[in-house]
Amino acid sequence: MAYGDVHSGYRGLAYISNVGNVRFGDASISAKQVVEAPDLIMGDWDHDAYVYGKVEVGGTISGPVTETFVSGSGGGTGLWSWGVKRDGDCGDLDSGDVTLYYYCGGSDKNSRTFSNMLVNTIGFSCAAGDIAQFNIDLMGMAAGDWAAATPPHMTTGEKLMTWDVCSVQISSGGEFDVPANIAYSNFDFSISNNLTPVYSLGQNDTVGLFPFDIVPGLRTITGSISVYDTPQADGYDYWTDYAAEPVSVITFNIGSLAIDMKVRFHRVEPASSVGPVVSTIGFTGVTHQTGAAFN
Known about the structure:
Layout: E1 13-16, E2 20-22, E3 26-27, E4 30-32, E5 35-36, E6 51-52, E7 56-64, H1 68-71, H2 79-84, E8 96-101, E9 111-127, E10 133-140, E11 142-143, E12 166-171, E13 184-192, E14 196-198, E15 213-215, E16 220-228, H3 239-243, E17 248-254, E18 257-265, E19 269-271, E20 278-285
Antiparallel strand pairs: 1-2, 1-8, 3-7, 4-7, 5-6, 7-10, 8-9, 9-10, 9-11, 9-13, 12-17, 13-16, 14-15, 16-20, 17-18, 18-20, 19-20
């Protein structure tokens, strides 16, 4: 880049092989590496001994939820499916390549492809009167060379997911009494695949200091729902009462996507203010999750 060249980022784009072209608000994917210079007894007062540490590839993409979140573009599967779908036998995730086009810069090296990326965490939130938001945290195994490329022209109109097409239904397991006319203020959830990058002694030159594998861990589901007024339920006092009830099922409707989560609710956390009374109920995913995109 010549001195004085400044490019606007709005002509950039993210292309994910499993999903297609993705519009987003912010992206921070990169290859990170630190230089380690330990304190040594070495006859000098400056650090003379150093080593380049392991390379970690990853970062986040976030922004308003568009139809791509649900169905993908160009035949893709959608961010939701890519982020949570596990292989039915071994619980593996689908890896994909992510290309970031930072700007439209002609012959400048303005893009980079990150290979074998997996979704570490995918989050979703929506508040009444607002646009739904997503964020995904990614982890990968390699970062390609910088390249000169023209970003794809994504000119087709795409509707943002607003609160009016996002809703919640709860099939009570007993510990949370759900009135028929309950109104929800907002909800959010996060699904973590708890990825672990793996490095090995004697890695060959083709791998270098990058991880040679990434292993998915247990899936962790957490979130909360806020409701107007205060539900007349606050959990049980005895373990036997909880054990006697089935788990609750929350159905999140995001446009045409219906997501069922099997959860246990935390105790209600009511709050009072000059405005409407709003109570927050946290939840944690339990039991094997099934249904849309989970497996």
